[in-house]
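Recap for those who missed Tuesday's class. We walked through two folding examples back to back. For each one, the amino acid string is listed first and its predicted structure tokens come directly after. Nothing is annotated here on purpose, so try labeling regions yourself before you check the end of the notes.
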Amino acid sequence: MATFLYKLGRLSFRRRWSFLLLWVAVLAAVGFGAASAPAAPDDQNSMPGIESQKAFDLMEQRFPGAAADGASARIVFIAPAGEKVTATENRAVIQKLVTDAGKGAQVASAVSPFQAKAISEDATTAYATVTFKAKADDLTDADKTSLEHAIDTARASGMTVEVGGDALATQPSAGGAAEAIGIAIAAVVLLITFGSMAAAGLPLLTAVLGVGISMAGIMAVASTFGLSETTGTLATMLGLACGIDYALFIVSRYREERTKGHAPQEAAALATGTAGSAVVFAGLTVVIALAGLSVVGIPMLTKMGLAAAGAVVVGVLIALTLVPALLGFWPNAVLSRRTRGRGHTKEDTRNNGGSRWARFVLRRPVPVLLAAVAGLGTLAIPVLDLQLGMPGDEAKPTSTTERRAYDALADGFGPGFNGPLAIVVDARGASDPKAAVATIEKKIAATDGVVSVSPARFNSAGDTAVFSAVPATSPTDEKTKSLVKTIRSERPATEGATGAEFEVTGTTALNIDVAQKTQDALVPYLIVVVGLAILLLLLVFRSILVPLKAALGFLLSVLAALGSVIAVFQWGWGASLLGVETTGPIMSLMPIFLVGIVFGLAMDYEVFLVARMREAYVHGDGPKQAVVTGFRYSARVVVAAALIMMAVFSGFIGAGESMIKMIGFGLAIAVLFDAFVVRMALVPAVLALLGKAAWWMPGWLDRILPRVDVEGEALTHRSTPPTDPGSASDSAPMPVPPPGPTPVLVPDRRD
């Protein structure tokens, strides 16, 4: 591995124009493909394998055309204090709004509350429903004008008017200015780390290029593989994160090799052969984590994972080829001013912050280990109270009309009104379908927790019916979840008595089923991802305990991060500091996203940091000195990479949507825990206590595992720095070591 990548890096440096033009051609090709490809399909929220999806599919089959997918707006009217919506003046205002709204070219129907009897018991609240022919994303500003003008007119009369639904809903922002600030902070961190504008800009440039290629590629094949616009969200995030990290580590190693006296071309080759090997295996762990999302069984999630995995592969290829090629154009620009000002390079073997911190941990491994485990374990306690769901309008800020409409409907019609359950009855097996449906209606209406049921609606064949049941509690309440379970658990007796079958669906039931499905898939996902990663790390480190330590450390950090998310967004601890106005269940896909993304980044830090320790150990350092050496050369760049990721993810905390805040906060704090607590404290403490045992592997396993030279051991026999650093040149042939035994001590790992 190291030898192959060494040759690749050397070739990229020498043939820099060829590799640069190659990547430009790739960008142009995928860009042309994206521009000429058909539009991406709409998001498909199909969730195979769950009851609510089966019921929805049955309803579409038996009621063709009934499940219209056009946009809708639910307009909520609240009468002024002391008045009722049924008053003559208020009634006239509502009727005028409905009439004006129905004049829109794309409006399919506009139903007034007086026609649908959608008025609260105290007559202070009512709602009208406006349905469009087109989907929300396809509506133009002109299509919405009639409705918006009618709403403004009604508000001018003194009546409170709020709007729910998706027709006029504002799209959530991904962070806006706060995200831009995060990227700016990343640039500052790179500049401080490298002390060079070129060195700071190169990782950002190559990462942006990689994301551009990946996104254009996704758009080019979107129609063929059914990839929606949201599929690329995860690819963009991880493509940028990993792209910066991978280029960062290779540039850092290039600078290190230059300080050892190597010529630019040789330094680029060595950096690609050593740091590049770590990049390959770090990238493989990320790809494993993302491809493992298919275990969950949700098509959208599988597509997002595979698309993001493709973006990471592109990032790895760019780091291994384009980065050394760009170093060939500006071999000295990425060096610090102090290094360039010397006129020659000299290796700096003095202690730095990384080596001093490592020695501190090595002197006190037990207290550091106990403090890290206790701290992360305490933060993980809230995971025991994890409640999954899919927050809707109730999680939006009160500044949005959707949230105010939700609250008004809950106040006027009850908290369960915003999340009715849909009951689909298949009465083909019943001797009297209507009597069977009536029996099922009465049974569900009598269930504790059900406020009311609507009259059943039959299909044209008369063998299938649909009716709704309104719970007494809100859609995200745990009591609603229990109600759905109760209805389903009591179903066999009812079906046996009537001969008809029924299933529970609707948005509320769908969210409950998705939450349960993802929760059930979390443990298998962890087993698959962590298991495959351990096997991969066995090849990298030739050790039994180091991969196990890496996996256990990751579990600690991700559980602590998930516990912190629960404490803030479910329990409400410190929620006001992040601008979270409403607490509730954690987004169903959040744990899966957190595990997948953080696992990839955590293994990045593990490979880059511990690979340098193993490299030092293989080259003759004792176990503790290898830890110090690894920290001397890698700690600074790992810290920089972690700070960059935290800055980028923290940008999402500034978003208006609670779910986006949750993702940003969870990822940022997970990187904080994993990079600074696990990798910087727990890892050196464990290695100090294990000593030589950390690098032990059974002889039989060592013999059967394929050997991959990640630490560049083979390269030490091929290249030595020139005697006079100032005389090195790009065109000089690779120096050959003098005859005789190589002065490199390689300990026998099987002792």
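Example two. Treat it independently of the first, because the proteins are unrelated.
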Amino acid sequence: MSAAAAARQILTHLHEVMASRLHAQGKLDRVVEIVGEALDSEVCSIYLLREGMLELFATRGLKQEAVHVTRMALGEGLTGTIAQNVETLNLAEAKAHPDFQYRPETGEEKFHSFAGVPIVYRERAVGALNVQHLDPRRYEDVEIEALQTTAMVLSELIANTGLIDEEEALGLTRASTEPAKMEGLPLVKGLASGVAVYHQPRVTIDQVVAEDVEVERQRVYRAFDRMRDQIDTMAQQAEFGAGGEHEEVLQTYKMFAYDEGWSRRINEAIDSGLTAEAAIERVQQRTRMRMREIDDPLLADRMHDLEDLSNRLLRIVSGQIGTAASKGLPRDTILIAKNLGPAELLEYDRRKLKGVILEEGSLTAHVVIVARAMAVPVLGRVRGLRGMVREGDEVLLDADAGTATARPAQTMLQAFEARFAQTKKRLASYAELRDVEPFTRDGTRIQVMMNAGLRDDISSLNLVGADGIGLFRTEFQFLVSATLPQRERQTRLYRDVMDAAGSKPVVFRTVDIGGDKAVPYLASEYAEQDENPAMGWRALRLAMERKGLLKAQARALLEAAGGRPLNVMFPMVAEPWEFDAAKAVFDEQLDYMRDRKKMLPETIRYGVMLEVPALAEVLDLMIPRISFMSIGTNDLTQFLFAADRANPKLAERYDWLSPAILRFLRRLVRGTQGQPIDLGVCGEMGGRRLEALALLGVGIRRLSITPSSVGPIKELVRQVDLAEIEAAMDEWLVRPPGCLREAIADWAQAKGIDTQ
């Protein structure tokens, strides 16, 4: 029997039950009988959330005296795991699962196989539908889909009969007047305040079972046509200009909108007897479950784009089209959402949208790229968000500290406003330094450059007064593209960046993908999963294996730089021969262009990122080959300490201001002194004032940092006497104090240097 036929058989009987005059308990009792018989399963049970516990409401096959007696917490046992994780379980041997718990009052000890699906109400699990069988076996896909369909019908029954408390189901706290502080992951930093507005009121599905399958199919076809028209229009009206990365983001988004596999799965769900709304919802639930199983953050972000489109399609087909964007924002707003697609963010009035808080989200998500260009602070991964914030609540968002506060007390509000005012004042003081060259007190010129990765980042170059772009991350174009960027597109980007930078230098780092920066279109090329992605098949290692990739990038950079200087930097170089091999690719492309009389760069400077400590041991061999070297402090630190920076347990364990790091850096400085090589630091370390002071103390004279750090670092530089900090650092590194960080901070305070 096909999945559609199996589900249709169950749906026919369920439709009769829903229309009957049975009371709610009677309907549940009948549902477990229908499902058990259809799937030839000895046990079928329904658990529902009540007073924070999952309670056995109905069963066929377990002991009846356990009904309304057996209860378990979320996360407890297999049923609790299903509800807590909103995931499906399909086990040939239930007892083998680590979360299995035996409940003697149910009489379930003789059953081996187990399958269960969550009963979802407004995106939250409010129960579970389980089946069990005497013999060990995994349930087939058609049976699991039938269970998922039944769970949707149960959700409708629950909503209509008050079997659960709606506020409890939504996770809402009743103390809605008390301040609620939330913590999350800063995705786009900044401060903002405004009223909470939910991006998308949940679409209510009033009917699950279809009266006429063909009518439902036509409704979906019309909705798809309308949604695709909306996406096409939005792509044409994007505010960021033709050819930008944001256009590429929208092209990926558009690719999903035209995906035939997605529409086919919705049609299959309609074939099983569901309405158009219920079919979209069922496919969307499966997408959410898949998202929870995806370890690859980039692929997970693409699944979020599909979730965004599902919501849009559901609103169109149901006629419930109104979103916060279409209705218009009343005043300064903090937008609340589970997740957000890039196209949906672009729909909002930028004058009133002050910040965004997401239940999910990640640093590589498309929406974050767009939000950064819009200068909208974003806080992500806020657990229990819907339970703490209600529509219309006043919200203070501090995406710098990774916190937000709903319904703040008056004292909190005043303190936040004072800090906001102070931040604006300080930003204004940094703006005054835009055209001021950063000389130390003793007259030494320090180069303060900025990092970038998108075309729109270049506008910050003149705004903050940076000396140039010390690191342009070319991989960003690869990460936001649905396919490998063609050479012509790369050339256009690099030329635009150099045009925007004008006479200021730009250092292009060749593509650093692979490892934790996976791209799906190259996944087959490095399918083996690295146990430690940071030290795996990534950056120059991958690019040299895929010589076509580096070859195309080399030509794009050389063509873009025709008639002007070009600075190229290779990442993750560990030995001189790797640099030689990479440079040979550029030399080959230069010869090709020279033979065809193409315009060549005026000059080419080659450099390396020093991230791998081994490179420090062959400095004497590297120096004759290169013009400059940038120390990548983020990767270098994790390699020196053998500490994965993505591991939260290790994130704060090792300090940049440790003797090990600073001695290493000072050795690099001394090893290059008097040599024709430009040495600098590229990374987050250089953008922190106290750390920057230490870097000046070990001899670093060039920093490349985030645009927002340029002003604060310029201000710091003007307070420093290099001879004093170098003398102090020499003493500390010979006889390190108990806490070097505290020693540097105390010294700076005594000298009147602001390191905050």
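Answers for example two:
The chain has 28 helices and 22 strands.
Confidence is low (pLDDT under 50) at residues 238-243.
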